[in-house]
User: Fold these one by one.
Assistant:
Number 1:
Amino acid sequence: MSNPFPASASQNYGADAAGLICGYLLGTDTPPQEVDSAQAAQWLASLQAGAAPADQFLWLHFNLSHAQAVRWMERHAHLPEAFFDALKDRSVSTRIERDDDTLIAVLNDAHFDFAFEPSDIATLWTSVAPHLMVTGRTRPLRSVDALRTTVRSGNAPCSSVALLAELMRTQASGLVDIVRGVTQRIDDVEDALLAGRLDHKRARLGVLRRLLVRLQRLLAPEPAALFRLLQHPPAWMGADDAQELRDSTEEFSVVLRDMQGLQERIKLLQEEIAASVQEANSRSLFVLTVVTVLALPINILAGLFGMNVGGVPLADNGHGFWIIVAVVAAFTAVAGWLALRGTRDQ
């Protein structure tokens, strides 16, 4: 199978020759042990031969932009075909599905250099078996890096499912930080709106709303797949692991509800800004209309008296100019009174 992701020299930084970013051998009573791709291949071979310890499992994290990553997984990891199909699938909505005795998870997370842009979201593909958890990404992601730090510090879960649940909890914590950042930006826009400084706040709100919509669309776990998994988990998954997975998805649900509330708040602010802009445009249009009405008498009289024809009235009168000025002023005053009276009647 060819690698569906294009290789990039900058993206390959930090991975070994097999595209492995990090690997850890974890167990119940043993501290985390960092392994490279050669050691991982040797351990997986012993696992296939039935010689690996039953209380240990391996976590391998790959850079899928590396040309050798998918080939190495096909050769040594013995992952189900559903995992490689998920890599090529265009649907990247968050989901956890069961394929025989393996869990296939597609998760979405923020980039490591997240800048509150809708495009700063990437996908993490995961395969979870009793003794092996494989994760792969094309861009550096926040949650995986935080999980890597947790494992390196010695606070690693005791099973592969617990490690997946910890990854989802870490992702939920990252989303909480994003929600807090969006809330702060919305507060700033709201304060500027109350102070009468509109500037380009509508564009900023539009970017934040698109970000929340994209996050909610990509991060909300598919309920049907999750319900089937929790109702019929694999035989090797313990009750405690299933409960941890259920709790981690509930944390997701809480964050997603907060995001939905922020979307409603942004919508109300956008409507308020639109109403303010429309009111300002209406005032400008009214002022323009009043000026046009006030200038109408003098324009009409100037046009009439400017015609080069005989019989122009008051042409021989010494006070003709002032008489015309008085007539124009009277007509202008009447037009202004009529325009302003219509405004007071509203």
Number 2:
Amino acid sequence: MRYTLKQIAVFDAIAEYGSVSQAADYLSLTQSATSMSLSQLEKVLGRSLFERQGKQMRLTHWGEWLRPRAKRLLQDARQIETGFSELQGISGELTICASQTPAEHLLPELVSSLDRIYPDVRVKVSVKSSHNVIEDVLSYRSDLGIIEGRCDDHRLRQEIWCNDHLTIVASADHPYAALPSVSFELLEQARWVLREPGSGTRMVFESAIHPHLHQLDVWREYDFVPVLCSLTAHSDYLTCLPYLEVKPLIESKQLVALNVPQLKMDRSLSFVWRADIGEHPLIDCVRETGLRMVEGRSQLS
């Protein structure tokens, strides 16, 4: 091979940061050495991998083609290095980006299980909306995403982790709380506080409600679930949230789940990862550990 792992690492870092100087800082190299490595790689491959736009570097078509292959090559190299040094088959670093519900209610137990089973795997976690989780995985900022609802992007693979459902809740003092069922006409008359547009919860709710209602009186939109719960518990607002989020508040009678017989809002929580990365042992470990975890929960329930 006429190219080196160093050149591939330089290419990947520039693609990540969009800047030669930032890539140099990340790799602890001089800017001139970083530029030289990229030039040598482009010369060897006979293709320009970036378009220079001032100080910003944008991937060309060939750079886009190389990116997932470079990621896979670097991951394999790290696996070889850490595997031999630690005598451990599964080791390395994985970045996970999760939407709010799985991040709060499932991810802590998953990371704890990974720490116990694979002590040499280092997991970095971030929390964003489902839309931004998908963007992070597509742009290589995260190796694995955990989202609410569906993803139809052909560039990603999706695997259902577990199932959940959304429920409409009101305060215990709300006039609707004592009703055996709530009609769509009453829902249309209510004031609402909801998750922000782009969240998995909001997308599932709108998909379910729009065939029945075209307009809701939405007063507030927040990306922080405890704010929505507190507003609803202490006012006449309605909100719609995952059952996992509101279950403790329903059990403590701070919130009441409203019965809307015609409204079904089942949804899934899923793993997503890039389809073009090939085999990835760390992603496989996380998925398998997560599936065993929820299987164990269902057996106990």
Number 3:
Amino acid sequence: MPCSCARKAGILRSMRLYPVLLAFLLPCVGAHAAAPGPAEIVAHAPDSAWRTLSPDRLLLMTTADGRRIVIELASDFAPVHVANVVRLAQTHAWDGGAIIRVQDNYVVQWRVRDEKAPLPGGFVKNPPAEYDRPVAGIGFRPLGYPDSYAPQAGFAAGWPVGGDGTRVWPAQCYATVAVARDMPPDTGNGQELYAVNGEASRQLDRNLAVVGRVLVGMDQLGALPRGTGAMGFYTDARQDVAIRRVVLAADLPPAERPKIQAMRTESPSFDAYLAARAARTDPFFVHPAHGVALCNAPVPSREVR
């Protein structure tokens, strides 16, 4: 039932900023105290707002210079391409490979050790064009704001997606991992991957197979020196960043597996987070935007030590 601003503020204090109530309390909070920002909402989200990612959906990549990258695999969207990437990891094809391209505000790209080596058993040399999938069976949570690249935008299976009412496709936001390819009809087979390191890649939606997203270590990939060759490729092999190992977390001893959690996009905490991203009421902001782009509302994740 309706209640006064004073009563709402009292509830807010007593619940210690419990994020489930944010949407209910936000209209009156501004008159009494600054509403929690996105980071505070994430920090106070209850355990029920998080899901622990299965180790058979996590890749751990380490480079020769000590960088540690954890990637969540997008098996719901590109199962054949993802299976290829996993087979390459399990046969150590990535070990001794290299990061060969860093294009500013675009992508960081890496490859296996030897692209001409015999392919592992069960590897699909020419995968289908896994660029979108039916919305049926995966669900769709609308973003609530217009999108420049799709009739609809929102979240499916915890991933940012575009959609048209019948099909959905992963959005190529910052930290998205996808399969490099040549000209169509080639779809790429997973031997070369890239991670988006900027905000200029949504034109790639539905044009390349998305196989994952970087959850840990994107800052390290983004800090790599930019390539000086065409499209950001390194022109000297000595510039390449060597890959020491890529391994599926499920193939590691339990004590060595990274434990990663992602926020449930169907949770009240995510509702509050999304509302705060769209209308920042932090003291710094003079004029809230009252809108948010899909890629500017990344699904929160955290590593549990």
